[in-house]
Amino acid sequence: MEPNLLKVNRVKLESDKPETLIKIVFFGDTHFGEFYDTSQLDRIVEKVNAENPDIVIFTGDLIGASGEFISNPDCISLGLAEIHATYGKYGVFGNHEYALYQEYDYEETMKAGGFEVLVNDWVDIPEINVRILGIDDYYQGSPDKDLGSEARMDAFNILITHEPDFVDQMNIDGVQLILAGHTHGGQISIPFLTEKILPFGGEKYIKGLFEIGMDGKTDLFVTKGIGTTKLPFRFMNIPEIVSIEIGN
């Protein structure tokens, strides 16, 4: 049953930045393909829009690479274009984007859907005093471990990464929030089994909220994602969209 479910996980976080009030909705690991049909995108769009987000984030792995390539990127773009966010939509590469590099153009697909893909780059949203930093895929890309140094002292800084464990190699002192995916929360949570099947780059921070960095001042949230890979099963890991309210 779990792969067919989809819940909204709502989280409230505090900010030490003055007058910070932001709602971020993020999702990842849709793995559209043999186990998750693009027709499911409609309910993702509906649930995201129902949260009235200021910013929407996608943390990678749009189309699954573990089976035959049967997804239509143009249809996915049309669906993504229906997602609304007051101050923009942003994403990063996941390892499956690199695995399917010959099959379709991920950046163009996301761009057609209104998303800006950040590859070791950042963008400012001055209206809400936010800087978003997006890192390249840790597993197959060329991630810049020094990207955290681009955090602004006077802004609320959000770092997006597909694989969560890479943040331990970075200077994140100036980053308030990190958003990641990749792990599927373990996908199938069974004692003594799950730790053996966790993916590279997602063996330490598996799911949920962590306080990391100097004095635990950086919040890291790892989503359980939406789709599945290799096997069409989930256990104790209901697919989710994460809605984060940040305020003082």
Q: Level of helix content?
A: 10-25%
In one word, what is the shape? globular
CATH fold name: Purple Acid Phosphatase, chain A, domain 2
Question: What's the number of helices?
Answer: 5
Q: What is the total tally of β strands?
A: 12
Helix/strand-derived class?
alpha/beta
Task: Bin the strand percentage.
Answer: 15-25%
What's the SSE pattern? EEHEHEHHEEEEEHEEE
Distance between the termini: 38 Å
Mean pLDDT: 92
Q: What is the topology, as strand order, of the major beta sheet? A: 1-12-2-3-4-5
- Give the CATH class: Alpha Beta
What do you see in this structure?
The protein is of the alpha/beta class and 248 residues long. The chain contains five helices and twelve strands. The protein has helices at 41-50, 73-80, 95-99, 106-112, 194-197; strands at residues 7-14, 22-27, 55-58, 89-91, 115-117, 121-125, 130-134, 156-160, 177-180, 208-212, 218-222, 240-247. The strands form two sheets. The chain has a six-stranded mixed β-sheet with strand order 1-12-2-3-4-5. The longest helix is centred in the N-terminal third of the chain and has 10 residues, at 41-50. One of its GO terms (cellular component) is membrane. It comes from Acetobacterium bakii. InterPro entries: Calcineurin-like_PHP (IPR004843), Metallo-depent_PP-like (IPR029052), Metallophosphoesterase_sf (IPR051158). This is Calcineurin-like phosphoesterase domain-containing protein.
Main features:
5 helices, globular, 248 residues, Metallo-depent_PP-like, 6-stranded mixed beta sheet, Purple Acid Phosphatase, chain A, domain 2, alpha/beta
